[in-house]
C-alpha cells in the first residue's frame, strides 16, 4: 500500500465553460474593489436556496458554475471540497490538543513556531547518548561486572537493551509528549494517561538519580573535603554521606531548574560541552584498555589473607618495617592492634594471616578474564575476598566494621542488578520525549533512536573489557576504597583518571538537565489533552511554550528522590515506571499490527508484531525480576489513574485500539458460538425486553428494566427493544430521541445490555422483526420479556390484545421462552429490598424447568435475597425448596363461571359487530339477546341438576378434550348435556372454570406472596378465540399483586449433570 501521494489540482473546462467563465470574470464594467461575499462550500445554506434547485440565486449559480460542482451541490452544503480539506491539512500542526483548541490558540501557536527547532543529532541522538553513557556506566557498571560476572552482566545488559529497543525502529512520534502521544492515540486516553503519568514519574525520578550520581562523584572522587556532615563515630560514614547527598542534591536541583527555566536552547548549548566530555571519557577508557595489554598500570591492592583492605588510612601494605635490624610497626598495625607497640593486643585474623599485594589492574593479557567470568554474590556487610588466596579462618570479629576492610554495602542479587542497570538504557527514548521541539520528528526519531541502540554496544564491550583488565576484588569495590578512594574505571583510563572523573561528572549533569527538560514537556502534553482534569493547570507556561508550572511540579517530585539520597534505591523505582511504559509501547505496536489499522504504517520494513510481543513479555518479566513489590505498586498506581480517567476524564476522539481488539475478539467468539446451541448446564435467559413508548418517546414501564436487572444480575445477554410506528425517513429523529431515552433509563437502572429500536409500518410487524432478528449470530436472545397490556379492554384501544397474542404465537414459533409481567409498575426497584416473604411458583405443566430456574436467579439479586421459601403445585420435597401439594379444583361449574363466560362472549360479539353492516348488526343483536335468554334458563337448570361425579381437568389437551366429549353418555344427564352444548361455548366454559378455580386456589395460598410465578397457557389455534384467551388470562391472575406468567421455549433449561 503506498504511503506517499501527490494531489494535483485539475482545471475542468467542459465545452469551453472555463473560458466563458474567465471572460465573464474579466468583462468590462465590473467595478473594482473587494468582491461581494459568496457562500463557501459547506456553509450550511438550506438546500432550497441552492442554484441547482432554484435559479433565482445568481451569485450561488455563478459560484458553482465556474467550478463545475453543481452535481455535488447538496453534498457541499455539509462536506467541504477536497481542495479546502487539503489546504487545512497543509496548515495542520501536530500538537497534542484537538482541532478546536488549536484554532482558538492559533496566535499563540504561531509564536510558538518561532521557537528553535532541533535536528536529529542535537534533538534525538544527544539526549539518548547522555542517558546511555551516563551515571550507571561510570559509577556502577564495574561493580555489576564484579558481582554478577561477565556472563550474567552481559545477559543483564542484553536483556535491558532488547526490552527497550524491539519496537523502536518502527515508531516515530510526531508530537509533543513522545511515547505518551503514541500510547494515548493507539490504546485510548485511559491507557495513555495512566502510562503517560508513569513515564513522567520515571523521567522525573531519573533526574533525581542523575543528580545523586553527580553529587556522589563530587563528594567521593573530586572533593571529599567539601562534605558538610563529617563522620563522628565508627560506622557513621554511610549516614553522613546520605545527609551530604541530600543537601548538595537539593542545591544542584535548584540550579538545574533555573537553567531549564531560562530556556531549552541553553540546555542544548551546554549539552555540546557535556557530549564532548562523554566522548573523551569513552575514548580514554578504550585507550587505557589498549595500554594495559602492553604496559599495565602499577596499582597495588592490599590483601590481609584473602580479604581486601581499604587504603584510605594507610599507605604501606606491611605489618612492620625492618630498620637496621630493628622492627617498627606500620600504620596498618595500629589499625588492627590496640597500640603501635609490637606487644600490643591485635586482631586474631590479623595475627593469623599475612599481608600481600596484588595488581588491581593486571591488564588484558593477564588472564583475569576467566576469574571474572562467574558471579560472586554476597550479603550486606560481607568481606570482599579474592578466590584462590590462602586464608586462616578465625571466629567472627565483633569489631569488623571498625577495621579497614572493604565490605559490601548492600545484599546483591541478579534481580537487584537488573533494576540498578535498567535506567542506563532508558535513554533510548529520551529523544522522543522532545519530539515537539524537532524539525522533522518523522525522520529524526527513527534515525536518532537507531543510532542510540547501536551506541549501547559500548556498554556490552565495556563489560568484556572490564572483566579482562581489572581484578575481581577491585571490580566488587563499589567506591574504590582499595584504590585509596579513586574511581575504579578512572584508574583504567589513559592518560589520567581525571579524564573519567570530570567526564562522568559533566555527563551526569547533562543527563539530569535532559530529564528536567523532557519531564515537564511530557506533563504539559498530558495536561493540554485535558484527560485528567486536575492537571490542566500544568498545561500553561510562558509565551514561548516553556512549561513553567509543569517544571515546578517536576522539581518538587524530583526532590523526593533526592531525599532518598541513595542511587541504588532510586534506580529500581524509576525502572518500574519505565518498564511499565515500554510494556504498553510494545503492546500498542502489537495491537495496531494485529488489527491491521490503516493509520499504522511502521517505516522499519523488517518490523513484525512478534518483536513487540516479545518485548512486552520481556518488560513484564523484568518488572517482577527487579522487584515484585515495586512492580505491583507501579501497576496499582497505573490502575488507579486508569480508573480515574475512565470515571472523570474527558471524552476524546482519538480512537481506541483496545476497542478494536475487543471487536476482533467478539467476532472470533461469535463465530465459535455459532457452531451449536449451548448445553443445558450453560443455559440462562438471554432476554429481549419489549418496551412500550408514549407519545414523547419515554418508556411507559421503567420497572420492567429493574426486573430485568434483578433477573440477569449483569450476566448473559440483554437486548432492550422497542418499536415506533411509521417510516424511518419520517421518524428517524423520534427514533434517535427514543433510543437516547432508553439508554438513559438503562444506565439509571444499571441494565447492562444493548438497545435496538425498530421503525416499522405497524407495531405488529416491528415486534415480529425484533423477535426474529434481534442479536447477532449465536449471540441471540432465547427469552422475551414484556409487560401485560393492561389497557386491552379499553374502548379507545379495542384491538391492542391482537399484538400481544400474535407476539405469544411468534415466540412459540421461534422456540423462545416468554415472560409476561402483570402489574409491572408494582414490581420492586433495584434500590428496594424484600424484607422477607416468599416467591410462589405454580408449576402446572412441565415447561423445561423455567419455573424452577427463574426463582433461583431472582434470589441471587439483593432485592429478593431474603425470600427464602418457595411454594409450588407439585407433590415433591427437596432440601433447598419447600414444595406444597394443592388438591385439584372442584368439579362443579358454578353460575359465576357461566356468567363470566357469557359476559366474555357478549363482549366478543359486540366487538365483531362494530365491523358489520347495519342489517348484520341487527341480526347479531337479536342473536346475542337469544343467547342471553338461554343462559338464564341454563343457570336455573344448573341449580337443580345433581353434581357430576367426574373431575374437570385443570389443564386441557387435545386428547383430554376428546375423551371428555365421549365420557358422559348417561341418559340421566342428557338434559344437562343439551344445556351444556348451548351457548356459551362448551370449551370456553371449561377453560373459564379452570381459570376461576385455579385463581381461587392461588389467591388462597399466595395472597401475601412477594411474587407469583405461574404457567402461562398457550393461545388457541383458532384465531377467533384470541379475545377469549385474553379474558382467561385476566381471570387466572385476577386479584394478585405481582404476577409473572411463564411460557417455556420448548427445550430443557435444567439438568441433573450440573
Automatic annotation (TrEMBL):
GO molecular function annotation: potassium:chloride symporter activity; protein kinase binding
Q: Which residues form the SLC12A transporter C-terminal domain?
A: 702-820, 821-874, 965-1058
Quote the InterPro entries the UniProt record gives: AA-permease/SLC12A_dom (IPR004841), KCL_cotranspt (IPR000076), SLC12_C (IPR018491), SLC12A_fam (IPR004842)
Where, by residue number, does the polypeptide cross the bilayer? Answer: 118-137, 143-166, 187-212, 247-264, 270-289, 406-430, 450-475, 487-506, 549-567, 573-595, 607-631
Region annotation Disordered: where it falls in the sequence = 1-52
Membrane topology per the entry is:
Multi-pass membrane protein
The entry's keywords:
Cell membrane, Chloride, Glycoprotein, Ion transport, Membrane, Phosphoprotein, Potassium, Potassium transport, Symport, Transmembrane, Transmembrane helix, Transport
Residue ranges under compositional bias (Basic and acidic residues)? 12-26
Q: A Pfam family matched by this chain, by name?
A: SLC12
Residue ranges of every copy of the Amino acid permease/ SLC12A domain listed in the record:
124-289, 412-688
Q: Which GO terms describe its cellular component?
A: plasma membrane; protein-containing complex; synapse
Catalytic activities: K(+)(in) + chloride(in) = K(+)(out) + chloride(out)
User: GO BP, one example?
Assistant: chloride transmembrane transport
Its annotated compartments are:
Cell membrane
Family assignment from sequence similarity: Belongs to the SLC12A transporter family. K/Cl co-transporter subfamily.
Instruction: Report the PANTHER family cross-referenced here.
Output: SOLUTE CARRIER FAMILY 12 MEMBER 7, SOLUTE CARRIER FAMILY 12, CATION COTRANSPORTERS
What is this protein's record name?
A: Solute carrier family 12 member 7
Amino acid at each position: 500500500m503506498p504511503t506517499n501521494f501527490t494531489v494535483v489540482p485539475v482545471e475542468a473546462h467542459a465545452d469551453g465553460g472555463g473560458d466563458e467563465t474567465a471572460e465573464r470574470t474579466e468583462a468590462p464594467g465590473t467595478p473594482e474593489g473587494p468582491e461581494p461575499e459568496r457562500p463557501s462550500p459547506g456553509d450550511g445554506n438550506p438546500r432550497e436556496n441552492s442554484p441547482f434547485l432554484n435559479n433565482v440565486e445568481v451569485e450561488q449559480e455563478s459560484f458553482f458554475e465556474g467550478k463545475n460542482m453543481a452535481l455535488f451541490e447538496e453534498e457541499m452544503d455539509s462536506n467541504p471540497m477536497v481542495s479546502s480539506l487539503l489546504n487545512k491539512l497543509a496548515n495542520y500542526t501536530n500538537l497534542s490538543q484537538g482541532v478546536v483548541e488549536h484554532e482558538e490558540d492559533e496566535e499563540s501557536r504561531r509564536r510558538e513556531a518561532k521557537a528553535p527547532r532541533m535536528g536529529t543529532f542535537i534533538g534525538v541522538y544527544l539526549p539518548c547518548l547522555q542517558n546511555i553513557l551516563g551515571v550507571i556506566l561510570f559509577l556502577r557498571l564495574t561493580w555489576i561486572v564484579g558481582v554478577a560476572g561477565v556472563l550474567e552482566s552481559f545477559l543483564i545488559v542484553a536483556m535491558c537493551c532488547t526490552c527497550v529497543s524491539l519496537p523502536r525502529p518502527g515508531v516515530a512520534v510526531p508530537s509533543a509528549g513522545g511515547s505518551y502521544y503514541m500510547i494515548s492515540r493507539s490504546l485510548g486516553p485511559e491507557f495513555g494517561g495512566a502510562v503517560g503519568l508513569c513515564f513522567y514519574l520515571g523521567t522525573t525520578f531519573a533526574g533525581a538519580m542523575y543528580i545523586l550520581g553527580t553529587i556522589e562523584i563530587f563528594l567521593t572522587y573530586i572533593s571529599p573535603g567539601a562534605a558538610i556532615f563529617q563522620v563522628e563515630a565508627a560506622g557513621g560514614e554511610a549516614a553522613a554521606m546520605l545527609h551530604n547527598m541530600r543537601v548538595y542534591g537539593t542545591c544542584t536541583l535548584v540550579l538545574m531548574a533555573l537553567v531549564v527555566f531560562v530556556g531549552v536552547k541553553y540546555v542544548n548549548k551546554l549539552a555540546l560541552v557535556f557530549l564532548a566530555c562523554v566522548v573523551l571519557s569513552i575514548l580514554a577508557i578504550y585507550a587505557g584498555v589498549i595500554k594495559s595489554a602492553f604496559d599495565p598500570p602499577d596499582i597495588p591492592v592490599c590483601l590481609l589473607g584473602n580479604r581486601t583492605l581499604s587504603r584510605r588510612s594507610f599507605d604501606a601494605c606491611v605489618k612492620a618495617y625492618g630498620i637496621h635490624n630493628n622492627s617498627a610497626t606500620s600504620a596498618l598495625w595500629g589499625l588492627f592492634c590496640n597500640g603501635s607497640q609490637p606487644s600490643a593486643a591485635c586482631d586474631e585474623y590479623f595475627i593469623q594471616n599475612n599481608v600481600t599485594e596484588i595488581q588491581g589492574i593486571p591488564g588484558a593479557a593477564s588472564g583475569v578474564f576467566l576469574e571474572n567470568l562467574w558471579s560472586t554474590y554476597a550479603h550486606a556487610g560481607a568481606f570482599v575476598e579474592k578466590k584462590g588466596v590462602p586464608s586462616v579462618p578465625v571466629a567472627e570479629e565483633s569489631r569488623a566494621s571498625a577495621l579497614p576492610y572493604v565490605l559490601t554495602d548492600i545484599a546483591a542479587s541478579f534481580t537487584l542488578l537488573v533494576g540498578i542497570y535498567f535506567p542506563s538504557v532508558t535513554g533510548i527514548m529520551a529523544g522522543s520525549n522532545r519530539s515537539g521541539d524537532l524539525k522533522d520528528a518523522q525522520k529524526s526519531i527513527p534515525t536518532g533512536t537507531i543510532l542510540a541502540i547501536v551506541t549501547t554496544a559500548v556498554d556490552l564491550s565495556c563489560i568484556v573489557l572490564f572483566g579482562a583488565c581489572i581484578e575481581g576484588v577491585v571490580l566488587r569495590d563499589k567506591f574504590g576504597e582499595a584504590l585509596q578512594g579513586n574511581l575504579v574505571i578512572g584508574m583504567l583510563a589513559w592518560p589520567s583518571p581525571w579524564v573519567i572523573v570530570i567526564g562522568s561528572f559533566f555527563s551526569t549533569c547533562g543527563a539530569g538537565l535532559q530529564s528536567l527538560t523532557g519531564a515537564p514537556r511530557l506533563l504539559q502534553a498530558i495536561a493540554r489533552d485535558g484527560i485528567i482534569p486536575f492537571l490542566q493547570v500544568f498545561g500553561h507556561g510562558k509565551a514561548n511554550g516553556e512549561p513553567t508550572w509543569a517544571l515546578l511540579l517536576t522539581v518538587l517530585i524530583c526532590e523526593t528522590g533526592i531525599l532518598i539520597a541513595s542511587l541504588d534505591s532510586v534506580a529500581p523505582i524509576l525502572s518500574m515506571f519505565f518498564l511499565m511504559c515500554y510494556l504498553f509501547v510494545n503492546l500498542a505496536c502489537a495491537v495496531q499490527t494485529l488489527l491491521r489499522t490503516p493509520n499504522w504504517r511502521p517505516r522499519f520494513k523488517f518490523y513484525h508484531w512478534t518483536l513487540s510481543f516479545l518485548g512486552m513479555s520481556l518488560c513484564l518479566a523484568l518488572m517482577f525480576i527487579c522487584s515484585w513489590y515495586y512492580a505491583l505498586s507501579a501497576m496499582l498506581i497505573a490502575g488507579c489513574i486508569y480508573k480515574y480517567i475512565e470515571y472523570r476524564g474527558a471524552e476524546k476522539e482519538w480512537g481506541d485500539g483496545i476497542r478494536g481488539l475487543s471487536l476482533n475478539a467478539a467476532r472470533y467468539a461469535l463465530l465459535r458460538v455459532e457452531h451449536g446451541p449451548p448445553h443445558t448446564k450453560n443455559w440462562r435467559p438471554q432476554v429481549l425486553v419489549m418496551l412500550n413508548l408514549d407519545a414523547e418517546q419515554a418508556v411507559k414501564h421503567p420497572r420492567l428494566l429493574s426486573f430485568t436487572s434483578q433477573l440477569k444480575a449483569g450476566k448473559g445477554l440483554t437486548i432492550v427493544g422497542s418499536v415506533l410506528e411509521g417510516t424511518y425517513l419520517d421518524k428517524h429523529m423520534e427514533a434517535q430521541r427514543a433510543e437516547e431515552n432508553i439508554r438513559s433509563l438503562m444506565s439509571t437502572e444499571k441494565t447492562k445490555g444493548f438497545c435496538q429500536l425498530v421503525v416499522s409500518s405497524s407495531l405488529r410487524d416491528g415486534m415480529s422483526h425484533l423477535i426474529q432478528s434481534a442479536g447477532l449470530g449465536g449471540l441471540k436472545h432465547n427469552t422475551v420479556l414484556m409487560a401485560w397490556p393492561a389497557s386491552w379492554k379499553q374502548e379507545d384501544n379495542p384491538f391492542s390484545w391482537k399484538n400481544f397474542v400474535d407476539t405469544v404465537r411468534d415466540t412459540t414459533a421461534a422456540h423462545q421462552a416468554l415472560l409476561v409481567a402483570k402489574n409491572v409498575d408494582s414490581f420492586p426497584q433495584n434500590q428496594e429490598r424484600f424484607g422477607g416473604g416468599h416467591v410462589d411458583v405454580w408449576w402446572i405443566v412441565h415447561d423445561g424447568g423455567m419455573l424452577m430456574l427463574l426463582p433461583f436467579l431472582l434470589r441471587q439479586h439483593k432485592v429478593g435475597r431474603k425470600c427464602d421459601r418457595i411454594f409450588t403445585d407439585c407433590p415433591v420435597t427437596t432440601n433447598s425448596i419447600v414444595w406444597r401439594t394443592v388438591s385439584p379444583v372442584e368439579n362443579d361449574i358454578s353460575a359465576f363461571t357461566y356468567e363470566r363466560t357469557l359476559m366474555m362472549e357478549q363482549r366478543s360479539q359486540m366487538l365483531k359487530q362494530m365491523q358489520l353492516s347495519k342489517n348484520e348488526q341487527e341480526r347479531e343483536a337479536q342473536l346475542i339477546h337469544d343467547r342471553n335468554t338461554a343462559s338464564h334458563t341454563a343457570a336455573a337448570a344448573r341449580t337443580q341438576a345433581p353434581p357430576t361425579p367426574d373431575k374437570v381437568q385443570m389443564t386441557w389437551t387435545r386428547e383430554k378434550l376428546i375423551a371428555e366429549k365421549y365420557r358422559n353418555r348417561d341418559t340421566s344427564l342428557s338434559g344437562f348435556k343439551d344445556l351444556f352444548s348451548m351457548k356459551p361455548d362448551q370449551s370456553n366454559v371449561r377453560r373459564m372454570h379452570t381459570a376461576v378455580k385455579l385463581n381461587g386456589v392461588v389467591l388462597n395460598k399466595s395472597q401475601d406472596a412477594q411474587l407469583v410465578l405461574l404457567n402461562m397457557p398457550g393461545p388457541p389455534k383458532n384465531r377467533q378465540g384470541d379475545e377469549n384467551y385474553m379474558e382467561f388470562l385476566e381471570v387466572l391472575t385476577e386479584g394478585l399483586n405481582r404476577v409473572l406468567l411463564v411460557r417455556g421455549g420448548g427445550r430443557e433449561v435444567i439438568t441433573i449433570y450440573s
